[in-house]
């Protein structure tokens, strides 16, 4: 169940990051409300995952997959560029997540 909570937390993390961009410095009400709710949801579900998972494993996967999702969706939604360096970095993050998942109890 911890991995399901962590997956949900990753979705909230991505929503939080993308929402932060849409707030325009927290000057827009509804994107700001969305962003704050996403942040709260992410922290809450991460805390549920960390009941079982080591904090180092859970937090690293949460931020790593959140970063990858944010960059991919940022490219799709906000037309941000994905460079070769970003792709190599994604590969390193994904490899790290796989190793952490395989070695986590």
Automatic annotation (TrEMBL):
GO terms for biological process: response to antibiotic. It comes from the Bacteria. Its main location: membrane. It is found in: Cell membrane. It is a multi-pass membrane protein. Signal peptide: none annotated. One of its GO terms (cellular component) is plasma membrane. One of its GO terms (molecular function) is transmembrane transporter activity. The chain crosses the membrane at residues 29-50, 57-78, 84-104. Keywords: Antibiotic resistance, Cell membrane, Membrane, Transmembrane, Transmembrane helix, Transport. Belongs to the drug/metabolite transporter (DMT) superfamily. Small multidrug resistance (SMR) (TC 2.A.7.1) family. Mmr subfamily. This is Multidrug resistance protein Mmr.
């Amino acid at each position: 169940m911890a991995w399901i909570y962590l997956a949900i937390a990753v979705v909230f993390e991505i929503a939080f990051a993308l929402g932060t961009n849409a707030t325009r410095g927290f000057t827009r009400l509804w994107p700001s409300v969305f962003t704050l709710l996403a942040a709260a949801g992410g922290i809450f579900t991460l805390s549920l995952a960390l009941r079982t998972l080591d904090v180092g494993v859970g937090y690293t996967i949460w931020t790593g997959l959140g970063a990858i999702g944010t960059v991919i969706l940022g490219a799709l939604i906000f037309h941000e560029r994905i460079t070769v360096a970003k792709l190599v970095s994604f590969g390193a993050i994904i490899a790290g997540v796989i190793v952490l998942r395989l070695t986590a109890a």
